[in-house]
Amino acid sequence: MKKIILLAAVALASQSIMAQQTTLREAFKDKFLVGAAISIRDVASKDPKVQAAIKNNFAVLTPENCMKCEEIHPKKDLYDFRDADALVKLAKKNKQAVTGHCLVWHSQCPYWMFKDDLAQPVTREELINRMRDHIHTVVGHFKGKIKGWDVVNEAVMENGTLRNSQYQRTIGDDFIRLAFQFAHEADPNVELYYNDYGMDNPNKRQRVVELIREIKSHGGRIDAVGMQCHLSFDSNLEEYEKSIQAFRAEGVKVMVTELDLSVLPWPQGNYGASVETNFDYQARMNPYTDGLPAEVAQKQTDFFKKFFALLLKYSDDITRVTFWGLCDKDSWKNGWPMAGRTDYPLALDRNYEPKPFVSEIIKLVK
Ligand code: GLA
Hints:
globular, about 375 residues, single chain, binds alpha-D-galactopyranose, about 15% strand, 8-stranded parallel beta barrel, alpha/beta
Protein backbone atom coordinates (compact mmCIF):
# COMPACT_ATOMS: atom_id res chain seq x y z
CA MET A 1 0.00 0.00 0.00
CA LYS A 2 2.79 2.38 1.07
CA LYS A 3 4.58 1.61 -2.17
CA ILE A 4 1.50 2.48 -4.25
CA ILE A 5 1.07 5.78 -2.42
CA LEU A 6 4.75 6.54 -2.93
CA LEU A 7 4.56 5.72 -6.66
CA ALA A 8 1.46 7.89 -7.03
CA ALA A 9 3.21 10.75 -5.26
CA VAL A 10 6.26 10.40 -7.52
CA ALA A 11 4.01 10.35 -10.60
CA LEU A 12 2.19 13.47 -9.47
CA ALA A 13 5.40 15.29 -8.65
CA SER A 14 6.97 14.44 -11.99
CA GLN A 15 3.78 15.51 -13.79
CA SER A 16 3.95 18.89 -12.14
CA ILE A 17 7.69 19.26 -12.88
CA MET A 18 6.94 18.40 -16.51
CA ALA A 19 4.13 20.94 -16.56
CA GLN A 20 6.56 23.56 -15.30
CA GLN A 21 9.18 22.69 -17.89
CA THR A 22 6.94 22.21 -20.90
CA THR A 23 6.13 25.39 -22.77
CA LEU A 24 2.73 26.40 -24.12
CA ARG A 25 4.08 25.87 -27.61
CA GLU A 26 5.11 22.29 -26.86
CA ALA A 27 2.25 21.28 -24.62
CA PHE A 28 -0.58 22.13 -27.01
CA LYS A 29 1.13 21.11 -30.25
CA ASP A 30 -1.21 18.17 -30.90
CA LYS A 31 -4.30 20.22 -29.97
CA PHE A 32 -3.99 23.68 -31.53
CA LEU A 33 -1.34 26.29 -32.22
CA VAL A 34 -0.72 28.66 -29.32
CA GLY A 35 0.47 32.07 -30.38
CA ALA A 36 1.06 35.68 -29.48
CA ALA A 37 0.57 39.01 -31.17
CA ILE A 38 3.87 40.82 -31.09
CA SER A 39 4.85 44.40 -31.73
CA ILE A 40 7.62 45.50 -34.03
CA ARG A 41 9.52 46.58 -30.89
CA ASP A 42 9.48 42.93 -29.79
CA VAL A 43 10.59 41.80 -33.23
CA ALA A 44 13.55 44.20 -33.25
CA SER A 45 14.47 43.72 -29.60
CA LYS A 46 18.07 42.81 -28.88
CA ASP A 47 17.12 41.61 -25.40
CA PRO A 48 17.74 37.83 -25.32
CA LYS A 49 14.93 37.46 -22.79
CA VAL A 50 12.42 38.95 -25.26
CA GLN A 51 13.65 36.79 -28.12
CA ALA A 52 13.59 33.65 -25.96
CA ALA A 53 10.07 34.47 -24.76
CA ILE A 54 8.83 34.79 -28.34
CA LYS A 55 10.55 31.68 -29.56
CA ASN A 56 10.03 29.29 -26.68
CA ASN A 57 6.42 29.91 -25.77
CA PHE A 58 4.60 30.36 -29.05
CA ALA A 59 4.08 28.38 -32.25
CA VAL A 60 2.48 31.17 -34.27
CA LEU A 61 2.92 34.94 -34.43
CA THR A 62 0.46 37.68 -35.35
CA PRO A 63 1.65 41.23 -36.01
CA GLU A 64 0.01 43.50 -33.45
CA ASN A 65 -0.04 46.48 -35.82
CA CYS A 66 2.43 46.35 -38.68
CA MET A 67 0.15 44.67 -41.23
CA LYS A 68 -2.75 47.02 -40.59
CA CYS A 69 -3.64 49.25 -43.52
CA GLU A 70 -2.31 52.50 -42.00
CA GLU A 71 1.10 50.87 -41.43
CA ILE A 72 1.55 48.74 -44.51
CA HIS A 73 -0.22 51.02 -47.02
CA PRO A 74 0.12 54.54 -45.59
CA LYS A 75 -0.39 56.35 -48.92
CA LYS A 76 -2.31 55.38 -52.01
CA ASP A 77 0.85 54.65 -53.98
CA LEU A 78 3.06 53.58 -51.11
CA TYR A 79 3.29 50.15 -49.54
CA ASP A 80 5.79 49.72 -46.71
CA PHE A 81 6.54 46.07 -46.00
CA ARG A 82 9.70 46.55 -43.93
CA ASP A 83 8.29 45.85 -40.47
CA ALA A 84 5.99 43.07 -41.62
CA ASP A 85 8.84 41.40 -43.54
CA ALA A 86 11.00 41.54 -40.40
CA LEU A 87 8.29 39.76 -38.42
CA VAL A 88 7.86 37.07 -41.07
CA LYS A 89 11.64 36.58 -41.15
CA LEU A 90 11.80 36.18 -37.38
CA ALA A 91 8.95 33.65 -37.44
CA LYS A 92 10.75 31.66 -40.11
CA LYS A 93 13.93 31.62 -38.03
CA ASN A 94 11.91 30.42 -35.02
CA LYS A 95 9.99 27.83 -37.09
CA GLN A 96 6.73 29.61 -36.28
CA ALA A 97 3.67 30.16 -38.44
CA VAL A 98 2.34 33.67 -39.13
CA THR A 99 -1.24 34.86 -39.31
CA GLY A 100 -1.88 38.12 -41.12
CA HIS A 101 -3.93 40.78 -39.33
CA CYS A 102 -5.92 42.42 -40.91
CA LEU A 103 -6.93 43.35 -44.46
CA VAL A 104 -10.24 45.22 -44.10
CA TRP A 105 -11.10 47.06 -40.87
CA HIS A 106 -12.89 50.33 -40.14
CA SER A 107 -10.15 51.32 -37.68
CA GLN A 108 -6.44 52.02 -38.24
CA CYS A 109 -7.20 52.56 -41.92
CA PRO A 110 -5.79 55.72 -43.50
CA TYR A 111 -7.97 58.61 -44.56
CA TRP A 112 -6.86 58.40 -48.21
CA MET A 113 -8.62 55.06 -48.66
CA PHE A 114 -12.05 56.66 -48.68
CA LYS A 115 -11.39 60.09 -50.28
CA ASP A 116 -10.53 61.24 -53.77
CA ASP A 117 -7.96 63.92 -54.63
CA LEU A 118 -10.50 66.65 -53.84
CA ALA A 119 -11.19 65.09 -50.41
CA GLN A 120 -14.61 63.94 -51.60
CA PRO A 121 -15.88 60.45 -50.75
CA VAL A 122 -14.93 57.89 -53.40
CA THR A 123 -17.56 55.96 -55.32
CA ARG A 124 -18.49 52.33 -54.69
CA GLU A 125 -16.58 51.29 -57.78
CA GLU A 126 -13.46 53.20 -56.74
CA LEU A 127 -13.48 51.83 -53.20
CA ILE A 128 -13.86 48.30 -54.54
CA ASN A 129 -10.85 48.96 -56.79
CA ARG A 130 -8.82 50.30 -53.86
CA MET A 131 -9.81 47.42 -51.63
CA ARG A 132 -8.91 44.95 -54.38
CA ASP A 133 -5.56 46.62 -54.96
CA HIS A 134 -4.78 46.62 -51.24
CA ILE A 135 -5.72 42.98 -50.74
CA HIS A 136 -4.06 41.71 -53.92
CA THR A 137 -0.84 43.55 -53.17
CA VAL A 138 -0.58 42.66 -49.48
CA VAL A 139 -1.73 39.04 -49.75
CA GLY A 140 0.33 38.66 -52.92
CA HIS A 141 3.45 39.99 -51.18
CA PHE A 142 3.24 37.31 -48.48
CA LYS A 143 2.06 34.50 -50.72
CA GLY A 144 3.37 31.19 -49.42
CA LYS A 145 4.73 32.79 -46.23
CA ILE A 146 1.56 33.25 -44.25
CA LYS A 147 -0.81 30.59 -42.97
CA GLY A 148 -3.98 32.65 -42.99
CA TRP A 149 -5.47 36.15 -43.00
CA ASP A 150 -7.98 38.01 -40.91
CA VAL A 151 -9.72 39.23 -44.05
CA VAL A 152 -12.43 41.33 -42.42
CA ASN A 153 -12.24 42.55 -38.83
CA GLU A 154 -15.16 43.70 -36.65
CA ALA A 155 -17.91 44.24 -39.22
CA VAL A 156 -20.80 43.21 -36.95
CA MET A 157 -22.40 45.32 -34.22
CA GLU A 158 -23.80 44.18 -30.86
CA ASN A 159 -27.36 44.14 -32.21
CA GLY A 160 -26.39 41.92 -35.13
CA THR A 161 -26.50 44.60 -37.83
CA LEU A 162 -23.48 45.38 -39.95
CA ARG A 163 -21.34 48.24 -38.69
CA ASN A 164 -21.96 51.51 -40.46
CA SER A 165 -18.32 51.75 -41.57
CA GLN A 166 -16.90 53.60 -44.54
CA TYR A 167 -16.58 50.28 -46.37
CA GLN A 168 -20.18 49.31 -45.64
CA ARG A 169 -21.59 52.76 -46.43
CA THR A 170 -19.73 53.16 -49.69
CA ILE A 171 -19.74 49.63 -51.08
CA GLY A 172 -22.72 48.04 -49.33
CA ASP A 173 -22.99 44.80 -47.34
CA ASP A 174 -21.24 42.85 -50.08
CA PHE A 175 -17.88 44.45 -49.22
CA ILE A 176 -17.33 41.44 -46.95
CA ARG A 177 -17.73 38.70 -49.52
CA LEU A 178 -15.79 40.78 -52.06
CA ALA A 179 -12.89 41.09 -49.62
CA PHE A 180 -12.84 37.31 -49.19
CA GLN A 181 -12.99 36.87 -52.95
CA PHE A 182 -10.03 39.20 -53.53
CA ALA A 183 -7.94 37.50 -50.84
CA HIS A 184 -8.61 34.11 -52.38
CA GLU A 185 -7.67 35.40 -55.84
CA ALA A 186 -4.37 36.69 -54.48
CA ASP A 187 -3.38 33.42 -52.80
CA PRO A 188 -5.63 30.41 -53.43
CA ASN A 189 -3.79 28.40 -50.77
CA VAL A 190 -3.96 30.82 -47.87
CA GLU A 191 -6.57 30.37 -45.12
CA LEU A 192 -9.16 33.11 -44.73
CA TYR A 193 -10.82 34.20 -41.48
CA TYR A 194 -13.57 36.52 -40.29
CA ASN A 195 -12.49 38.09 -36.96
CA ASP A 196 -14.56 39.87 -34.30
CA TYR A 197 -14.94 40.65 -30.61
CA GLY A 198 -17.99 39.94 -28.45
CA MET A 199 -18.52 36.47 -29.86
CA ASP A 200 -20.39 35.56 -26.70
CA ASN A 201 -23.20 37.78 -27.98
CA PRO A 202 -26.02 35.73 -29.61
CA ASN A 203 -26.87 38.54 -32.08
CA LYS A 204 -23.31 38.76 -33.30
CA ARG A 205 -23.03 34.97 -33.46
CA GLN A 206 -26.14 34.73 -35.64
CA ARG A 207 -24.97 37.46 -37.98
CA VAL A 208 -21.55 35.83 -38.35
CA VAL A 209 -23.28 32.54 -39.20
CA GLU A 210 -25.17 34.43 -41.93
CA LEU A 211 -21.92 35.94 -43.19
CA ILE A 212 -20.34 32.50 -43.49
CA ARG A 213 -23.37 31.29 -45.47
CA GLU A 214 -23.30 34.31 -47.72
CA ILE A 215 -19.58 33.96 -48.50
CA LYS A 216 -20.02 30.26 -49.21
CA SER A 217 -23.16 30.72 -51.29
CA HIS A 218 -21.13 32.89 -53.66
CA GLY A 219 -18.52 30.15 -53.96
CA GLY A 220 -16.13 31.97 -51.61
CA ARG A 221 -13.64 30.53 -49.18
CA ILE A 222 -13.78 31.01 -45.43
CA ASP A 223 -11.77 28.68 -43.21
CA ALA A 224 -12.41 29.95 -39.71
CA VAL A 225 -14.05 32.47 -37.46
CA GLY A 226 -11.69 34.29 -35.14
CA MET A 227 -13.21 35.01 -31.75
CA GLN A 228 -11.03 37.78 -30.32
CA CYS A 229 -11.80 36.92 -26.66
CA HIS A 230 -10.77 40.09 -24.85
CA LEU A 231 -12.13 38.62 -21.64
CA SER A 232 -12.93 39.82 -18.14
CA PHE A 233 -14.04 37.83 -15.11
CA ASP A 234 -17.69 38.28 -16.06
CA SER A 235 -17.30 36.95 -19.62
CA ASN A 236 -19.86 34.27 -20.35
CA LEU A 237 -18.11 31.04 -21.32
CA GLU A 238 -21.38 29.22 -21.99
CA GLU A 239 -22.17 31.71 -24.72
CA TYR A 240 -18.68 31.26 -26.17
CA GLU A 241 -19.33 27.53 -26.23
CA LYS A 242 -22.56 28.09 -28.18
CA SER A 243 -20.61 30.15 -30.70
CA ILE A 244 -18.01 27.41 -31.16
CA GLN A 245 -20.86 24.96 -31.78
CA ALA A 246 -22.63 27.30 -34.19
CA PHE A 247 -19.52 27.97 -36.29
CA ARG A 248 -18.58 24.32 -36.29
CA ALA A 249 -22.06 23.51 -37.61
CA GLU A 250 -21.33 25.84 -40.56
CA GLY A 251 -18.27 23.75 -41.42
CA VAL A 252 -15.60 26.26 -40.42
CA LYS A 253 -12.90 26.11 -37.78
CA VAL A 254 -12.74 28.39 -34.77
CA MET A 255 -9.79 30.40 -33.52
CA VAL A 256 -9.22 32.41 -30.38
CA THR A 257 -7.33 35.26 -31.93
CA GLU A 258 -6.77 38.02 -29.36
CA LEU A 259 -6.91 36.39 -25.96
CA ASP A 260 -6.44 38.45 -22.81
CA LEU A 261 -8.15 38.40 -19.43
CA SER A 262 -8.27 41.74 -17.68
CA VAL A 263 -8.18 41.56 -13.89
CA LEU A 264 -9.18 45.20 -13.45
CA PRO A 265 -12.59 46.61 -12.65
CA TRP A 266 -14.57 47.77 -15.65
CA PRO A 267 -16.03 51.26 -15.66
CA GLN A 268 -19.27 50.04 -17.26
CA GLY A 269 -19.29 46.34 -18.12
CA ASN A 270 -17.02 44.57 -20.59
CA TYR A 271 -16.84 46.39 -23.91
CA GLY A 272 -14.98 43.58 -25.68
CA ALA A 273 -12.74 45.62 -27.90
CA SER A 274 -14.74 48.53 -29.17
CA VAL A 275 -11.66 50.74 -29.18
CA GLU A 276 -13.75 53.89 -29.49
CA THR A 277 -14.93 53.48 -25.87
CA ASN A 278 -12.71 55.41 -23.42
CA PHE A 279 -12.98 56.65 -19.83
CA ASP A 280 -11.11 59.27 -17.81
CA TYR A 281 -8.53 57.95 -15.36
CA GLN A 282 -9.74 57.19 -11.82
CA ALA A 283 -7.28 55.79 -9.23
CA ARG A 284 -9.92 53.45 -7.77
CA MET A 285 -10.11 51.77 -11.16
CA ASN A 286 -6.39 50.97 -10.95
CA PRO A 287 -6.01 48.91 -7.77
CA TYR A 288 -2.96 46.70 -8.51
CA THR A 289 -0.14 49.11 -9.29
CA ASP A 290 2.18 47.35 -6.80
CA GLY A 291 1.65 43.82 -8.05
CA LEU A 292 -1.15 41.32 -8.42
CA PRO A 293 -2.57 40.09 -5.08
CA ALA A 294 -2.43 36.30 -4.68
CA GLU A 295 -6.21 35.93 -4.58
CA VAL A 296 -6.65 37.84 -7.85
CA ALA A 297 -3.90 35.78 -9.48
CA GLN A 298 -5.75 32.67 -8.30
CA LYS A 299 -9.02 33.98 -9.72
CA GLN A 300 -7.27 34.49 -13.04
CA THR A 301 -5.79 30.98 -12.91
CA ASP A 302 -9.22 29.49 -12.20
CA PHE A 303 -10.81 31.42 -15.05
CA PHE A 304 -8.10 30.48 -17.55
CA LYS A 305 -8.39 26.84 -16.46
CA LYS A 306 -12.11 26.89 -17.21
CA PHE A 307 -11.52 28.62 -20.51
CA PHE A 308 -8.78 26.23 -21.67
CA ALA A 309 -10.83 23.22 -20.53
CA LEU A 310 -13.55 24.50 -22.88
CA LEU A 311 -11.06 24.96 -25.73
CA LEU A 312 -9.65 21.48 -25.20
CA LYS A 313 -13.17 20.03 -25.28
CA TYR A 314 -13.47 21.42 -28.80
CA SER A 315 -9.85 20.97 -29.87
CA ASP A 316 -10.97 19.17 -33.06
CA ASP A 317 -12.65 22.40 -34.13
CA ILE A 318 -10.17 24.91 -32.73
CA THR A 319 -6.98 25.44 -34.69
CA ARG A 320 -5.29 28.36 -32.91
CA VAL A 321 -5.29 30.25 -29.63
CA THR A 322 -3.36 33.53 -29.73
CA PHE A 323 -2.67 35.83 -26.77
CA TRP A 324 -2.90 39.51 -27.67
CA GLY A 325 0.57 40.63 -26.67
CA LEU A 326 3.85 39.12 -25.55
CA CYS A 327 3.77 39.98 -21.86
CA ASP A 328 1.65 41.89 -19.33
CA LYS A 329 3.72 45.03 -19.65
CA ASP A 330 3.04 45.25 -23.41
CA SER A 331 -0.70 44.70 -23.30
CA TRP A 332 -3.04 47.30 -24.77
CA LYS A 333 -5.22 46.66 -21.70
CA ASN A 334 -2.89 48.91 -19.68
CA GLY A 335 -4.19 51.75 -21.82
CA TRP A 336 -7.79 50.80 -22.60
CA PRO A 337 -10.60 51.56 -21.81
CA MET A 338 -8.78 53.85 -19.38
CA ALA A 339 -5.24 55.09 -19.94
CA GLY A 340 -2.55 54.68 -17.29
CA ARG A 341 -3.66 51.46 -15.57
CA THR A 342 -1.62 48.39 -14.60
CA ASP A 343 -3.27 45.24 -15.90
CA TYR A 344 -2.15 41.59 -15.92
CA PRO A 345 -4.05 40.00 -18.81
CA LEU A 346 -1.51 37.77 -20.56
CA ALA A 347 0.41 34.51 -20.22
CA LEU A 348 3.83 36.02 -19.50
CA ASP A 349 4.53 38.41 -16.62
CA ARG A 350 6.36 41.74 -16.81
CA ASN A 351 9.64 39.85 -16.69
CA TYR A 352 8.71 37.65 -19.70
CA GLU A 353 8.24 34.57 -17.48
CA PRO A 354 5.17 32.32 -17.75
CA LYS A 355 2.67 33.15 -15.00
CA PRO A 356 1.52 30.44 -12.57
CA PHE A 357 -1.67 29.78 -14.57
CA VAL A 358 0.41 28.61 -17.53
CA SER A 359 1.61 25.42 -15.85
CA GLU A 360 -1.96 24.85 -14.65
CA ILE A 361 -3.42 24.96 -18.17
CA ILE A 362 -0.56 22.82 -19.45
CA LYS A 363 -1.59 20.15 -16.91
CA LEU A 364 -5.05 20.09 -18.54
CA VAL A 365 -3.59 18.74 -21.78
CA LYS A 366 -2.50 15.58 -20.02
C1 GLA B 1 -8.98 44.89 -31.88
C2 GLA B 1 -8.10 44.66 -33.09
C3 GLA B 1 -6.67 44.47 -32.71
C4 GLA B 1 -6.23 45.44 -31.66
C5 GLA B 1 -7.16 45.42 -30.49
C6 GLA B 1 -6.78 46.43 -29.45
O1 GLA B 1 -9.24 43.76 -31.18
O2 GLA B 1 -8.51 43.57 -33.87
O3 GLA B 1 -5.87 44.64 -33.85
O4 GLA B 1 -6.17 46.74 -32.20
O5 GLA B 1 -8.44 45.78 -30.95
O6 GLA B 1 -5.46 46.71 -29.43
